[in-house]
Amino acid sequence: MNELNYSPLTALLTFLGIVLLLFLLFRPGKGWFWLIQKNKESSRKVIIEDILKLLYHSENEEKSLNLVDITRTLKDPDDLIIDSINEMAEHELINLEGEHVKLTQAGSEYGLRIVRAHRLWEKFLAEKTGFAEADWHKIAEQKEHELSDADTDKLSARLGNPQFDPHGDPIPTNTGKMANVTGTLLSEMEVNSFGRIIHIKDKPDIVYRQILAENIHIGSHIRIVEKNANRVVFHSEGEAFVLAPIVAGNITVTELKKDVKVEENIARLSMLTEGETAEIIGISKEMRGESRRRLLDLGFVKGAKVSIELPNPLGEPKAFLIKGTSIALRNNQASKILILKD
Amino acid sequence: MNNVDNLINLSKDLRWQIGDDFHDNLAEGIYADAAEIVKDSVHKKDENKKLRLDATIDRIVTSRVWGFPIMFLILAVVLWLTIVGANYPSSMLATLLLDTVHPFLRSMAVAASFPAWLSGFLIDGVYLAVAWVIAVMLPPMAIFFPLFTLLEDFGYLPRVAFNLDYLFKKSGAHGKQALTMSMGFGCNAAGVVATRIIDSPRERLIAIITNNFSLCNGRWPTQILIATIFVGAVVPKAFSGIASLGAVIGIAVLGMAFMFFVSWGLSKTVLKGEVSTFNLELPPYRPPRFWKTIYTSLIDRTLIVLWRAIVFAAPAGAVIWLISNIHIGDLSIAAWSIDFLDPFGFLLGLNGVILLAYVVAIPANEIVIPTILMLTVMVTGISGGEGAGVMFELDSVTATGDILKAGGWTLLTAINLMLFSLLHNPCSTTIYTIYKETKSVKWTTIASILPVILGFIVTFLVAQIWRLF
Fold first, then answer.
1. Nearest chain B Cα distance for residue A143, angstroms
2. pLDDT at residue B296 above 60?
3. Domain extent for A86
4. Which of A170, A305, B118, B309 is deepest in the core (most CB within 10 A)?
5. CA–CA separation, A140 vs A121, rounded Å?
6. CA A292 – CA A287 distance, rounded (Å)
């Protein structure tokens, strides 16, 4: 045994050193190992595809971009971006008109394919995995470069050829067909008008996270209550929401005609109190995939009567009496079940 | 041909027009229609009286004041009945299998003039390990599983999950993990099988991987023995019972803390992308079907687990005998390995004997202490025991302590052994069961390696800090 030349302090310090090294290497997101791996990935192909996507989106919004805009928006080194743009021009994906960069027909189609892969992958993450909503965009940003056309078609078929991604953006078909999104920005709705949320923009990240934290869902019916330069107030599913206009500008609404019957009294199951009974109106679109099917299996379907059977000593989950059975649900689930109190 | 193309195009157009909501609406429509039909055609008898009784029990067992005390009381009673109750049948089985049948087999072997290596290999190796596992494992499981199944059958256990779900939710797990964890106090392999009640993939994997942090029946006796010898001895005699009991409970509670911590870590990292759902049905109470419960828990749980343990224990017994009796140069394989492991063991505040015992006793935690005793006697050359490769245990706690102290054990060794007994790889029965349940080499590996790494880190830190002061 080496007890003679051993000191617990050295051992402890060596251990701390190793832990520190492992931390620096594998720290989530910023670890050296991940950075090196990411550097390898940011190949020419990825940069080209990112530029194509950027051009595609801005041409859709009828904005034109020049070289400076592109280098400023993308995080890759400038020289790599310039090289990539030259290569793209050689392959006739883009035309350089002075400072302005324009997509050719081929470039536009290529860009659309990337958009399709991105949105399909977001849909896949939403329906078939447990990743948190805030992570979808980031994961799809990587995955879009890895999917081949055949992969994308297979994925689309597996998801039932969806028309919209979970943020409400249309998914192009493999022939380039895309559903129309015609709506009004929430910030531009009239006071007292009714609408249904159809799209929530996932950029910029900070604004998107704020919307997620407010529990605002696609598919919710809303009524605008107040609007001024500082804030937009609307009622939805029994709750009042207050947003800054810049945040409201990230939400698109389709206006509901006056003759569509809008239930003003809709509430969420999480708002039911003991002793009250209610009828279920439906399950919010935010409840997806396996979770949604499970709720349907358990009997949380339109028209079913529901009441609180048992409160919880720690607050949640509460047990609800549904179809003669006692089922416990957590608050984040109950908040996605819409009810009409009796 | 043209006609067919037209039709296909028409269907594509229509599919496009009906939109994404179509599948959902159809499914919900079918469910709603089914509900309407049931409402009109199924009539139920008035069950009000039964429901009122159910509601009363529910109010009590989930009340803010009584819910948690009742839970802990029931768990404590079940564990106490298991540990104390198992002592008597265990010692009877030990007398029969170890003290009567074992010498008898040996004398038979002598009478049949078996060569020494054959009788050593078969009787001192294979037979002894199997007999040991049966004697130590069978009685606690035969008590614990029926008690647990009775509670399950009565309908109480879902209420425990209901009460505790909030805590488990905080660490990304499912309330039902409270049940699989409690089942793990009986046997981790059974606890892993019990995770079938969790139907959400992510939470089920968490429950499987962290089940090993529940101190199982095979480890309780080790904890109690070591705590009695070493922890009980450092306080005045009047408090030694309380001190050693406190140490054992402390280890069990530490296991729960690790369970929550690791669950949280897993749900935030490697298991992030697994699908996660939640639902918990609270079935009506019903009188347990006593005999059926006893029968199924004995057959389905006890015997299956015991059989798996025996299958793994037999080769382990052979290995233990072989490494102690095959010599390379002038030392046995065991002695070479102990020399080799000693520096590493010292760094962890343990020793080579303990590490080797944990390597060869992977099949069952029950044979760790007998193996340690046998190896200690062998390498220290003190008198006692029954010879190289023959595991033994002593009736006297003091005598056991003397052997261990002769092997160089201190209070630090004892504490770190208790920690390592909590934080080491699952036994091979459990590993095999994890593979059966997950069908994944990846998750099985993580579930096996993760606790050992934690064990190394924790015992290492404890040893260094201990020596600093």
1. 14
2. yes
3. 32-103
4. B309
5. 6
6. 5
CB atoms within 10 A of CB B404: 23
> Same domain, yes or no, for A40 and A17?
no
Q: Is residue A335 included in any domain, yes or no?
A: yes
ipTM: 0.78
Nearest CA in chain B to A130: B275
Of A104, A72, A109, which Cα lies nearest the Cα of A91?
A104
Identify whether residues A73 and A83 lie together within a single domain. yes
Closest by alpha carbon to B370, among B405, B404, B415? B404
Q: Name which of A167, A285, A301, A307 to mutate to probe chain B: the one with the most chain B Cβ atoms within 10 A of its Cβ.
A: A301
Q: Is cis: bond before A204, omega within 30 of 0? A: yes
Report if residue A77 sits inside a domain.
yes
Average pLDDT over residues A184-207: 82
Q: Which residues, 6+ apart, have CB-to-CB distance to B112 below 8 Å?
A: none
Residue A137 lies in a domain: no
Q: Is the Cβ pair B274, A129 closer than 8 Å?
A: yes
- Cα–Cα distance, B190 to B434 (Å, whole number): 10
Element (H, E) at B378: helix B368-380
Q: A282 and B28: CB-CB below 8 Å? A: yes
Task: Identify the residue among B157, B348, B379, B464 best suited for mutation to test binding to A, counting A beta carbons within 10 A and taking the highest.
Answer: B464
Residues of chain A found within 8 Å of residue B31, distances taken between Cβ atoms: 296, 299, 301-302
| Nearest-angstrom CA–CA distance, B86 and B137 | 9
Regarding whether A272 and A260 lie in a shared domain, the answer is no
Q: A318 and A288, same structural domain?
A: yes
- For the entire predicted model, the pTM comes to 0.84
Both A191 and A250 in a single domain? yes
Whether residue A8 lies within 8 A of chain B, CB to CB, comes out as yes
* Per-residue three-class SS string for B24-41: HHHHHHHHHHHHHHHHHH
A55 and A87 within one domain: yes
B230-256 pLDDT per residue, tens: 888 888 888 888 888 889 999 999 999
Rounded CA-CA distance A115/A122 in Å is 11
Residue A180, strand partner residues: none
Asked if B400 contacts B337 with a C-beta cutoff of 8 angstroms, the reply is no
The answer as to whether A281 is a domain residue is yes
Instruction: Report the number of distinct structural domains present in chain A.
Output: 4
Residues A253 and A271 in one domain: no
Q: Which of A81, A103, A125 is the last residue of a domain?
A: A103
CB contact under 8 A, A130 and B342: no
Smallest CA-to-CA distance from A338 within A248, A233, A219, A224 is with A219
Whether A319 contacts chain B with CB within 8 A:
yes
Task: Supply the CATH number for residue A194's domain.
Answer: 2.30.30.90
Reported as a single tens digit per residue, the pLDDT across A80-111 is 788 888 888 888 888 877 777 788 888 888 88
Q: Domain boundary residue among A264, A285, A316?
A: A264
**Residue among A2, A160, A325 minimizing CB distance to B23:** A160
A313 touches chain B (CB under 8 A): yes
B39 contacts chain A (CB < 8 A) = no
Distance from CA of A26 to the nearest CA of B (A): 12
